[in-house]
From TrEMBL, chain A:
Record GO biological process: anaerobic electron transport chain; nitrate assimilation
SUPFAM superfamilies recorded: Respiratory nitrate reductase 1 gamma chain
EC number, as in UniProt: 1.7.99.4
Protein name listed in UniProt: Nitrate reductase-like protein NarX
Organism: Calidithermus roseus
Molecular function terms, GO-annotated: electron transfer activity; heme binding; metal ion binding; nitrate reductase activity
From TrEMBL, chain B:
4Fe-4S ferredoxin-type domain: residues covered: 7-36, 174-207, 209-238
Record organism: Calidithermus roseus
Superkingdom of this protein's organism: Bacteria
PROSITE patterns to which the protein is assigned, alphabetical: 4FE4S_FER_2
Full protein name: Respiratory nitrate reductase 1 beta chain
Length: 256, 503
């Protein structure tokens, strides 16, 4: 097995498997842990600039990548006209810069704001750093190897499809320049980190809000079909400490 | 008719002594954990004042509650559905910790560890968020008892529409007047917090109306915090989940009153069942401003009405709940005697905790003025009755707080309460009820019998009369859809998982 197979075939599959399996396990077994973990209450101003920029930038760019994977022909057709090609490439670059600035602000905020530092886990820094690397290598790729919208459909679309259809062709990325390979590998790293970090909030986007009724009323005593109980997830050390028995205080309630 | 039961609390503001025992009972029970230090599910405000969090009634800023759209339909003030999703990354209406206060404690070890020296060691304040020393800028009830202050009382939004001259007088030290306003979550019939939550994590229990956050479904989108016009959902900065007053449902389910109510020193709090018609919630929430209170009273049902009883049974309410609704102090004060009002009905969440507006500050000041007039004592009471509108704490102020600015709703309440007081005074001082007093009772829209009942439930209630809590039969609930043996060891208070960040 050469490096190429390891980094662009074995690792992607490991990352994807982790992302799917661990995410499902975490969302079912430890739902309390799944949260975007907003820190807006503690610091709002810098978050406004950082979070808005990073999220809109990244969501749009990821969306564009996804479109290129799903509709490669459309992308080629669109980019056939130079004006449209420049428009696309410049928009992409601008969004990436915007997102990069956002991540930078968020990173600086995490390091400089005392209140944010105390709620930062090592994983929070890892995620922001990986995103920063992703954006920087992406910008290098887009500007040094023009034009992505020409070769992405020829290289990455088949590469990703080959992985998804279980007929992997890692050789497609074998001869790419270092920075592009770095960008790709970093993406798989993000996928691997996804289920273990707050990135899991991405799959909890509450689109159901668009059509659910405003009010939610729940009956506790209405008969429901008997349901099998999901097995309790055993928790390590802390919970297994013996609980102190409830004390019987005696006396009657209501000595007013 | 779709009859449901609601556990409602009632606050008799005249009796509140502002001791904060309720807040401390609640804090010790529920919010004495990391990330919840700044949460006061129960707090007591000095009014006029800015409240907690500071200025929570300024809805232009905090965007809480509902408003009527162009076609008269209810709309969340905070956002439309699509707008809400687009603001997930950053929620502009969310208060920050500085709108509350940075929780603090003191480094008490310093008192013991300080090196020997010439000055007295002090325990310096440290932040409970960062652990670093801080300058304390604010705290819970920072404006406690500062009723007339220019700094706080002046910023009270309920002055709106009150004559500026009167407002200016209110800040003169000799004219200071204030009362206390204890607040918990109102467990609204049309809760804005529920409607604003994109994850659908907040829900209302149909059986007793308690509004709860499902901590497992909450994803920290924190829209509820902004949308609640009473600012009674709090965001736990440590666990990344929202939390709110749970009306002590574990206590209710075991027949005990909520901790705040049970510990209340002034015994101002009552707790009882209200039957309401769930089909009328929308009408109550979307009524024109001047009809809001009336529409809510219409949605609350008479538990003695045979049609209501039949419908309640059909809806699954057992006899004991119906009996509890009949004995409910909430029913008497809210529906029967019409003495209690919801806080800020204009927020249109149809709040289900009720307040009996304060009478004392109004009368005591007027009394002083009248003594100067050298009135004969037997005239004085009656003079008060006629001059309510000249009271120092303006009726408009109370109306802005409890009646969407509708003075016509406040006046009869104060008159009735005053009539009860005059009656009891005449009875105990003169030993008889003369025709004049009877006429006064009638003018206040009440009668001897009702006045006596109001008097008894106001001043002499026993614990069982204050808290009429029906049996929940909670044990039956789990059995219906889960195997209780499988749940053994899992139920009870506290977290099933330790509440650590991201775990
Ligand atoms: C479209 C769906 C998404 C939603 C609704 C969403 C929402 C949020 C929210 C509410 C926060 C908390 C912000 C705060 O502190 O108040 C957050 C943080 C974060 N999100 Fe997203 N997000 C989305 C997509 C993404 C994507 C696609 C990424 C990256 C690939 C991402 C990466 C992050 C990171 C790194 C943070 C932490 C920021 C920090 O350091 O404070 N999110 N997100
Ligand atoms: S008062 Fe309570 S139920 Fe009403 S909107 Fe606020 S948090 Fe929700
Ligand atoms: S315990 Fe009762 S009297 Fe004391 S502040 Fe609270 S509500 Fe008022």
């Amino acid at each position: 097995m050469n490096w190429n197979t390891l980094l662009f075939l074995v690792f992607p599959y490991v990352a994807l498997a982790l992302a799917v399996v661990v995410s499902i396990l975490r969302m079912r077994g430890r739902p309390f842990s799944v949260s975007a973990q907003s820190s807006q209450l503690l610091e709002s101003r810098k978050l406004y600039f950082g979070s808005t920029a990073m999220h809109w930038g990244l969501v749009l760019i990821l969306g564009a990548h996804l479109l290129a994977v799903l509709l490669p022909k459309g992308l080629l057709l669109w980019s056939a006209v130079p004006l449209r090609l420049y428009l696309l490439e410049i928009t992409g670059l601008a969004l990436a810069l915007w997102a990069g600035v956002g991540v930078w602000i968020l990173l600086a905020r995490r390091l400089s704001e005392a209140r944010i530092r105390v709620v930062s886990t090592p994983m929070d820094y890892v995620v922001l750093l990986l995103l920063l690397v992703s954006i920087i290598t992406g910008i290098i790729t887009a500007s040094a190897y023009r034009f992505g919208s020409y070769w992405f459909p020829a290289v990455f679309t088949p590469y990703l499809w080959s992985l998804f259809t279980l007929q992997p062709r890692p050789e497609l990325v074998a001869d790419l320049p270092f920075w592009i390979q770095f960008h790709v590998f970093n993406f798989w790293l993000l996928v691997a980190v996804f289920p273990f970090s707050r990135l899991i909030h991405i799959v909890t986007v509450p689109l159901g809000y668009l059509w659910r009724p405003w009010q939610i009323v729940i009956w506790l005593r209405r008969k429901r079909p008997l349901r099998a109980t999901p097995p309790a997830v055993p928790h390590p050390a802390p919970a297994s400490k013996p609980q102190p028995a409830l004390q019987d205080k005696g006396g009657s309630y209501g000595s007013d | 008719m779709n009859v449901r039961a609601h556990m409602s609390m009632l606050f008799h503001l005249d009796k509140c002594i502002g001791c904060h025992t309720c807040s401390v009972a609640c804090k010790n029970l529920w919010t004495d954990r990391k990330g919840t230090e700044y949460m006061w599910w129960n707090n007591v405000e000095t009014r006029p004042g800015a409240g907690y969090p500071t200025g929570w009634e300024e809805q232009e800023r905090f965007q809480g509650g509902w408003e009527l759209g162009k076609n008269g339909e209810l709309e969340l003030r905070l956002h439309s559905r699509a707008r809400g999703l687009s603001r997930l990354f950053f929620n502009p209406a969310l208060p920050t910790l500085d709108d509350y206060y940075e929780p603090y404690t003191f480094r008490y070890q310093d008192l013991f560890n300080a090196p020997e020296g010439n000055d007295q060691p002090t325990a310096i304040p440290i932040s409970m968020v960062t652990g670093e020393p801080i300058q304390i800028q604010a705290g819970p009830s920072w404006d406690d008892d500062l009723g007339g202050s220019n700094l706080y009382a002046k910023n009270d939004p309920n002055w709106e529409g009150v004559d500026p001259d009167i407002q200016a007088q209110m800040h003169e030290i000799e004219r200071v007047v204030f009362n206390y306003l204890p607040r918990i979550c109102n467990h609204c019939l049309n809760p804005a917090c529920v409607a604003a939550c994109p994850s659908g994590a907040i829900y209302k229990r149909a059986e007793d109306g308690v509004v709860l956050v499902n901590e497992n479904k909450c994803k920290a989108w924190r829209m509820c915090v902004a949308a609640c016009p009473y600012k009674k959902v709090y965001y736990n900065w440590s666990t990344g989940k929202s939390e709110k007053c749970i009306l002590c449902f574990p206590r209710l389910e075991t027949g005990q009153a909520p901790a705040c109510a049970h510990s209340c020193v002034g015994r101002i709090r009552y707790m009882g069942v209200l039957l309401y018609d769930a089909d009328k919630i929308y009408a109550a929430a979307s009524a024109p401003e001047e009809r809001l209170v009336e529409a809510q009273r219409e949605a609350i049902l008479d538990p003695f009405d045979p049609a209501v009883i039949a419908a309640a049974k059909e809806g699954g309410l057992d006899d004991e709940w119906i009996k509890a609704a009949q004995n409910s102090p909430a029913y008497k004060f809210v529906k029967l005697w019409k003495l209690a009002l919801p806080l800020h009905p204009e927020y249109r969440t149809v709040a289900m905790m009720f307040y009996i507006p304060p009478l004392s500050p109004i009368v005591s000041t007027l009394e002083r003025g009248l003594i100067k007039l050298d009135l004969p004592p037997e005239r004085m009471d009656f003079e008060l009755f006629e001059n309510l509108d000249k009271a120092r704490l303006p009726l408009e102020y109370l109306a802005n707080m409890f009646a969407a600015g509708n003075v016509a709703l406040i006046e009869p309440i104060l008159k009735k309460m005053l009539a009860v007081r005059i009656l009891k005074r005449r009875q105990s001082v003169y030993g008889e009820v003369d025709a004049q007093t009877l006429a006064l009772l009638e003018a206040a829209g009440t009668n001897l019998e009702e006045a006596e009942a109001i008097y008894r439930l106001t001043t002499l209630p026993t614990l069982e009369e204050r808290f009429v809590i029906p049996p929940y039969h909670r044990e039956a609930a789990a059995e219906l859809y889960n195997d209780p043996l499988a749940h053994k060891g899992e139920v009870g208070l506290g977290y099933i998982q330790p509440p650590r960040r991201g775990e």
